[in-house]
Amino acid sequence: MEVSASASKSTCGVLLTVMVCLILQTSSSAGLPTEVFGDEGGQVDLRCDPVFDDSKRLFWEVVQGTAGNIQILVKEPGKEAETLETRYAGRLTLYDGNSLRISNLNRDDDSVTSTDRDVLGTYRCSQGTAGTELILRVRHGPEPPTELTVTATKLYSVTVNVKGGQDGLLSQSLCLWYREEGTEEWKKGKGQTSCQSEVKEGQEVTLESTLPTSNTTYQVCVVAQNRLNSSRCEDAYVPATTDYVATFNTTIRLPNEAFKSSDPNSQQNSGLVSRIVNSVVLALKSAHPDIEVEVIQFREGSVLADLKISAGQREIQDVKEDFVSTVRSGRLTGIDVDRNYLYIDNEIPRAEIQDTGSKDDPDIIAKVVTPIAVLAAAAIAAVTAVYLCQRNSRSEGQKHIFEITYMAVAQVLQDLFQLAKDDDKFSILHSSKETAISNVRKPDNGFHESVDCKNIVAKADEASSLVVCGSTGSGKTQGVLAYAKKFAGKTANAAMWFFGQSENEENGLSEKIIMEQGKSLAERLGVGKVSPEELPNSIMASLCSRESLSLLIFDDVTDPNAIPPAYLSALDKVKVIITTRSSNLDLNLPDYKMKGFEEKDVLQFLRRDDQRSVEIFQGTPDKHLLDLSDYFGNYPHGLSLSRAYLLKSRTSVESYLRELQERSKNIPGQLKMHEKAVYGAILMSMENRMDRASQDMFKFAAILSQDGIPVSILSKGLEIASGENPNKDDFVTEVEELSLARVEGKKEEWIDGRMISVHQQTQAAILSSLDEQQLQTMTESLIKVFLQYFHKDTRKVQDGYMSSLLLPHVEAVLSLPIISKLPEKFHPALARLYETIGYMYCQKHLPEVAAPALEKAKEMISSLVPMDGDEESVYQSLVAKGRELHDKGDVYCKGLKTRLLTKGDVEVLESKVPTLSEDFSKAAKMEQPLTEEQHQQLVELGLAYSAEQVRDSFLVELAATIHYTSGRRIFYYQGQQRVDYRQTAEKELTLSLALSQKLASDKGIQILNKMLSQRAGTLYLLKETGDKAASQQKNDFLQAIQGYQDLINDNNDYFENGVLKKIGDDDWHRMFCYRAIVDSYRHLTGLATTDEERADFIQRHDESARKMVEFAEQQVKKDAKGNIIEEPEMLPEVYNMSGDFLIEMVETGMMKQVNDEEVTAEARKWYEKALNVTSKKAKNEEKFKHEVISRLGLAKVHTLMYESEKASAGRNGQSAPTANGETRIAMTDEEHVPLVDKSPTLDEVNHLINAKEEMNKSLEIFEAKFKNKKKEIQEAKEWNNRIRQHIKSLQSAVPKEEETTV
Fold first, then answer.
1. Contact at 8 Å (CB) between 996 and 1009?
2. What's the predicted TM-score (pTM) here?
């Protein structure tokens, strides 16, 4: 009986197993449910799989699981469809025979028990056979955010924390709103952090907004918004009361300022008041944005300044402490403050001593105050004591001065010696000191550390170089990036550089890309300007000089000759890893061949820990997953695509593989089976899982560069090609979820900053699906897009940013074979794009890379009109050909009417017509091109040329501009290349100017190039010194000065591309011309042959410099109250030029008729003015470029002031007064005379402290931003050594211990 029972149980087990397998097989063959999305209030289409047959009964039902299904619509053969459920009355219709359309979607339609409130139901059709189950999800407006709390209130701001609510299945943003208590109107918060986009449900977010008034109770709320709807403030808000104003009084001493008047409102004090307020606000505003500073009065004692500082009551104590710290540490810029003289509310604030030892240590002061500081304190205290005894009457201000204790004086010397020690942290002063340098990104999200990856890491660890070989999509790059991550972790201050950006799937990394990216590495390493031929050797010399090992990665190399041999010449110091699709690069380096995923890699990669992976893959047999991997050659790219598809569609692995095999059969070309599989997977993801508009939009990515493709450009391309306006949010979601692209950046208020990067195989797969006509349509559309967005106007950060992004993509499109087949009406457009490419590379200081594009631009123009004739015949031919092209619908000419106006363009138009519609400014901010109606408005206002004027001028202007840009290459070449190109440059710039002048004289059309080809062309050439004799240089500089003077007097309005670009009354233009004149006179002072001639040049320089500054300052914008709201970005450069000239004159002794102290004081004024410029327009790099010159200039000024006082004391004896009234005291005790003779005054020490502080600040900027500025860094080093020598002399002046009996 027991045996029988056991056998019975075994049989039952077998039968159950067979039944389960049959059920699973049936379920698998039927397919898993598919998700379908619709918008609440909108409609959705549900497709029915079975072929429509009117002879069969059709019904649609809601699948209820165990609760039974609900039929909602039925159609009997030959009859109209009948809606069975009243809640769907009037909302269900059939289309394409048996597919269902549901209108007016509502989440309340949900007829199933579901924990997911966004699921409306699971629908299925049946007509003979059952269709796929469709899970209908309803997108809707977001739910209100939760857990709103106020975390901080200041005088004029509030900060809150909040959690995102349910997002309605769409991307949602959260924004802070407010209203004053007792009012009805809600107002949207202001400030960069008042909103946050892409907020997930449950995500904690911090928002901050400015508020209008202090000591006021507001109600604040956070509104959630997506593209369908937004929540309301009435749903939830909390009170927030802003802080009230508190103040404290303080007194500071300005030792290097002369007392003029006690009244801060006096005209004599206006500059000083402005500097004090700006300096204090600048130092404290980042931590205390609501701070306000007021100068109450000035008192004698050098100058004592009484200030009132206001802030919120809750932070007033922190403000006091920060202000004390700022003064005593010398962090105030723009004013020279005595760091040891400070009163807060009529009391000297307590000095904080940092405890670096045990609290029980009785000798803590001895550890903090070094013996050298005590000795110096004793020495100066003795001198001060004698001085105090000798003076019988003093002003109140002078009495305050001598309240400083000997400990404070000692601290001054302590600070000075410490500043000298700070040099240790600057690597530019010490070749051995290194910082990390890298452009290598981390492995992609979802990266799996496969066996291949581990082998790459192990091999790379063992060898000094490695070539990683494998098919496209085998995971080579990801494996190398994984190694780079490990390399950085174990190599302190590693230098790692990634060379990568393939032209297309056939041509890998090019020599041009390696040179361009090598230049970026050179800048980071601090390599100065070198020729392209010298660049690799210079980079390797710099890398080999580093103590730590370096890593260079060359990604997707197909031609080994593209890598300069120098990069492979020092493998003991510079590790090199190369990835390639080629099986034999013939480099004689160790290699590793990719093998693909092993079985355990496949299973681990697909069956990850996240819930969706578990749902899809956990129940799938290993064999099915391994079969899928095998079809892709076990390479990760194909598996990643299939995994994403399966997660999104919830299709079974077997069904997906069958469909993929069918789709792959139709892939054209001589490809391996696993490559066709990847192509098929890419196209299946697009065709089956992407909206049609998103598909068409994504196709444009196939003909652009791989990386950093702006989503807005793809959208614009589709809009021009088909008139569609796709949903960019949906597109980004789809390509990311399907692993078709890597998404970077975010959507900003003024521009959609999102970009995608795609795999080479993705581009190739899409291209394989396009016919010739589709490719031509896409290419033509992108050319039109580039004409709008790819331009040379980089005056604004926003404009330059987009052009930089587009550069590689324009190059990619222009490299397509189909470009050569485009009709003649595209030739001017192509010439414009080639010219802009050349201009952009010149701006990057890569004239060699610019050359091919500029030559191509000239070639395109020459194909229309031969350019080798005399100027008159060339001009007439260009006019005639331009008219012909215009009448035939030339693309470039036609596009001028719908060009993009930049913010700089609109500012010029508004300066001419202040009443110009705000629509133009808004369009520029949002990067929206002109409409034809707007262009006509400009024509009527005289701000744009008429159609006839454009017809006559556009081709002449294009040809002139191209030759101007090509000629200006000379100013970017170095060495012999510059000399060799001079003759060509002169010819091109002369032709450019001649064409522009003929257009003006013949048609009365003034194009901007007429002025530019002189201001930055022919006159620039005159200023080139080269190998010219001194007499020739002098004549050329004088001729250039006359030319710039003529331009200053030129009051013409100038147009560019048919729109006003520069008005005659242009202060910026005058400033620029005077700047060139000032520079010319600076050179002439060195070329002068007599003192009288030099004095004349200096006088003319000063007159021109005053004019330069005058026109620069006239560009400062003020509001109705007279407050400065904007300053021109070149203003600090103008100030710095004035200061640099004065320092140069003092150093060379050329200003013999003027006292050096007066000259250095004047120079100091200019540098401080440069630092106080607060231009919002200047890019960060521009701001730092000006600041580093100002800081270095101030270091020179204070050094010269120190040297002047020392020299004065040496001439006049030890009792000579210093600039601020201090006196060295002679002591009668012969034994201690040496001590007194060598002792510095407090002013002298302060000069050196200021000099070293400014020098250190300049070195910090050089270190962080401009390591490649070799000439400027060398100058900074020389002045730094000069300062250190002075500091060293003070250290040696301190008496030894046995001499300190004072």
1. yes
2. 0.64
